[in-house]
Amino acid sequence: MDREAHDRLDALQRDPYPLYARARAAEGLTFVPELDAWLVARDADVREVLRRADEFSSVQALRPDVIPSPAAFAVLAGGFGGQPTVVSSDGPAHQRHRAPLNRGLSTGRVGELLPFVARRSAELIDEFEPHGTVELVEAYARRLPSEVVGRLIGLDPVDVPAAVYGSNRAEQLLFRPLPEDEQIAAAHDVVELHHLLDSYVRDRRAAPRDDLLSGMVEALAPEPGELTLDQRHELVSNVQNLFIAGHLTTTAVIGTAFLHLLGDRRQWELLCEQPESVHSAVEEALRYDTAVQGFRRTTTREVTLSGTVLPAGSVVFVAYGSANRDEQRHERPDVFDITRRPTRHVAFGYGTHGCPGSQLAREQLRITLELFSRRLPGLRFVDEGPGEMLPTLIHRAPEHLHLTW
Ligand code: HEM
After folding, report:
1. Residue with the nearest Cα to atom 27 of ligand 1?
2. Checking DSSP bridges between strand 402-404 and strand 133-135, what pairing results, if any?
3. What is the C-alpha separation between 323 and 308, in angstroms, rounded?
4. What is the DSSP letter of 138?
5. Per-residue CA distances from 243 to 160, 184, 240 (Å)
6. What CATH number has the domain spanning 3-404?
């Protein structure tokens, strides 16, 4: 990718909203060269694509923004990934991947995790409270969700930081333009993560436990006996996907929730004065600066959408983040307002691929906002104010949040 293309993609990732607004106002769909895809920007069109799953395949849902170099690919060949996962499969294959997740993320299962969420949330605040300032992304937003999803899956807490590191490297490799030597280094880190997850997968085949990982092994490799290499590849791909889907997104929304609550401090004060507004604050944070800005779909046949004819094989970028700012759906969509009556947003997608972790994500954000507003009502930015947003469309988040109280 040349320098200019890199800069254009970077600018779009840091602030996609002006492009979305133009695309929503335009006739038909808008082709966006930086994304190499047609942008589906209106709420009604986003829902239509997600409803028509047989015409809009998920096979390339997570197609990387950047294709790694052949040398980086060669390193990745020593790992276990690369197989279709729940996000990137359709029809019966998708249902097969999805079934253990529905069971493992049921209301009852999520309920069992909540005492842990509340305890860890309080302990993380205990750690930084005496210092009077905190960089919240590192000290809290990155930690709580990864510990929670690690526990859900069944990872030993000592392995969670390594899994976070490996996931971040995987994301950098596939979504950030890196020089070749950095790509190779990132690929080695990703392979290390694969081997770590593979050891878990084999362990759960030998000795199942009461965790989601055991449920995935049981569902994806139901016949007894040692796992085949293909099964290990499939399982590692899906466990890695679940770990990433479960933590980066929630980390992002914790970050943006504080960014906007403190950015207009009346909103924060309102939350502190009226604790019952936490539920609408959670929904507004999810809607206003949607963590997963969009995923791709590929047409399986010629399809007309919003008047634009898309030949078979066309790639569309389904922009949940734009739908959630659609003035046809939400009043004053560009205003962050926790007093608005929650409207149905698409922050968790919609339809067959709709997020199975939405309840767990909402509960983590609710518990976080309840605890912070009770314990640190004086919370505010330190002098320099909020920093930049991370350049990514798959977990939109502030790079840092330096706060005091
Ligand atoms: C605020 C946090 C979260 C947001 C914004 C979010 C958003 C989304 C979205 C938009 C999708 C739909 C993808 C598509 O249309 O292709 C999705 C799918 C998914 N999410 Fe979440 N998610 C969050 C948290 C979680 C958590 C906590 C978990 C698990 C612990 C999780 C696991 C998944 C999985 C496995 C899928 C794929 C489902 C499928 O393809 O059938 N997510 N998420």
Report:
1. 246
2. antiparallel
3. 18
4. I
5. 10, 22, 5
6. 1.10.630.10
d(Cα 21, Cα 322) in Å, to the nearest integer?
A: 8
**Domain segments of the chain as ranges:** 3-404
Given pLDDT bands bounded at 50, 70 and 90, which one contains residue 66? confident
Q: How far apart are CA 383 and CA 267, in angstroms?
A: 19
Cα–Cα distance for residue pair 155/250, rounded to 1 Å:
18
Q: What token pair was written down for 189?
A: 């880190």
Q: Which of 249, 282, 289 to mutate to test the pocket of ligand 1 (most atoms within 8 A of CB)?
A: 249
Please indicate whether residue 242, judged by its CB atom, sits closer than 6 Å to ligand 1. yes
- In angstroms, the CA 342 to CA 128 distance is 33
Maximum Cα interatomic distance, the chain, rounded to a whole number of Å: 61
Cβ atoms of residues 242 and 153 within 8 Å? yes
State pLDDT tens for residues 336-370: 999 998 789 999 999 999 999 999 999 999 999 99
Contact 96, 332 (CB under 8 A): no
